[in-house]
Amino acid sequence: MSRIAELKQSLKGYTKVELEHFYLCLEGCLAGLGATVISIYMIEKELEWNLLQKNSPVVQDGSTYFLLSHRAFEEDPRKTLFLEWLKAEMNESQHKLL
Fold it and tell me: Tens digit of pLDDT for each residue in 10-41?
């Protein structure tokens, strides 16, 4: 059984509530109102500060983040610097969280 299938099976006992934005799920968890499935990258600081705890191992689902720009990044060195900084931050987070 895949990790995602295992996670789905473990969540069957919970009542499902869908909220418009992940931040509402996060706020509910921080208030002690329940649990949620959320990207580990969205709760990195909360985990670091022990405000939340993981209730399952991290499941890599193939999600991807994209940085978008109206114009090419190469046209503006500030965009290139930001892109490289963002990549470094994501790599650091991956090594810490996964």
Answer: 888 888 888 889 999 999 999 999 888 899 99
CB 42 within 8 A of CB 25: no
Q: Could you tell me if 32 and 47 lie in one domain?
A: yes
DSSP letter for 16, please: P
Are residue 77 and residue 98 in the same domain, yes or no? yes
pTM of the model: 0.76
Return the SS3 of 86: helix
Distance of CA 10 to the CA centre of its chain: 19
Q: Can you give the residue range of the structural domain that contains 17?
A: 1-61
The pLDDT tens digits for 70-85 are: 999 999 999 999 999 9
